[in-house]
Amino acid sequence: MNGLVLEGGGMRGLFTAGVLDTMMDENLVFDGMIGVSAGALFGCNYKSRQKGRALRYNINLRNDPRYMGLRTLLKTGNVVGPEFAYHVVPFEIDKFDSETFRSNPMEFWMVCTDIVNGKPVYHKMEEFNHHELEWMRASASMPLVSTPVEIDGYTMLDGGMINSIPLEAFQNMGYDRNIVILTQPVGYKKKQMKIIWMFKHFCKKYPKIGEIMERRFEMYNAQLDYIEQESRKGNTLLIYPEEALRIGRTETDEKKMRRAYSLGCKKANELMPQIKDFLIHG
Q1: pLDDT tens for residues 175-230?
Q2: What are the beta bridge partners of residue 68?
Q3: What ranges make up the beta strands (E) of the chain?
Q4: 152: left (phi > 0), else alpha (psi -120 to 50), else beta?
Q5: 33 touches 20 (CB < 8 A)
Q6: What is the per-residue pLDDT for 95?
Q7: Distances (CA, A) of 57 to 41, 132, 175, 213
Q8: Is residue 14 within 8 Å of 55, Cβ to Cβ?
Q9: What does the pLDDT read at residue 98?
Q10: DSSP assignment letter at 166
Q11: In 141-206, which ranges are continuous DSSP H helix?
C-alpha cells in the first residue's frame, strides 16, 4: 500500500502543506497518511481535499490573540488556543469539509505521546468531530507551552516528542511504499537541547517527559538514519526543503509563512515526475 508520512515542526509544516496542495492539483491518491503534530493538523486537509486551507487560516488568524501566541499561553496555558483553534476555527471560521474527509477512503493516522508511560500512541481518525479533534490537539501540544490532553484513558502531548518521523510504524501497519515529507533539510541532525532542566523541573508530575526530551535528539537522528536506509532500498521517497526554512514554530510573519509554503510547492513540482513514477511502479 502507498502511504504518506508527514513530519511536524509547527509552522515549518507549511512547507508540507505546499507539497500536499501541489499533489492535490495532480489528483494523486494514497492508501493512507500518518501525520505528527503539524503534519496531522495540515495533512488532514489532503483527505478533505481543501487546497490552500492550511495557509489561508494561518495567515488570516496570525494576529488573533485567541489563536496563538503569548497572550493565549498566559490565558489558557497553551500557546495555541485549545477551544478556539481546534473547535471554533474548523466549524465556524474556516470550515473543514468533514463529509469529504469521512467519505475519502484514505486512512488518516496521527501520533501522540503518552506522557505517563513514555510511549507513542497511534490513532486512526475516521470522523472530524469534537472528540477526534482532541486527539489532534494532543498530537500537536508541545511540552512546556501546552497542558496535557486527557482522552480515552490517555494523558498525552506532542507525538513529535517520541516519534517525529513514523515511517517504521506505518510500515508495520502494512504501508510498504511511502513518501516521507520532512520539514528539515537533507543532512540535518538534531542536537541535544540545552534546556532539559526545564522539562524536568516544570514537568515533575510526569517524569517521563524529562526522560523523553533528554533522549529526543538520539531518537530523532535514529529515525533519520532509518528513512535514509529505506530510501536506498527504493521503497521510500523523501521530500525535504533544500535549506533551513527559517521560520519559527509559532511564526506570525506572513512573508515567512508564504515563503515556506511556496518552497513546498516548488519542491513538489520539481519532483513530480519522480513522485508519479514512484506511485505508478509501487
Answers
A1: 999 999 999 998 999 999 888 988 888 788 999 999 999 999 999 999 999 999 99
A2: 80
A3: 2-6, 32-36, 107-114, 119-124, 149-151, 154-158, 177-181, 236-239
A4: left
A5: no
A6: 98
A7: 12, 20, 31, 31
A8: yes
A9: 97
A10: -
A11: 167-172, 196-202
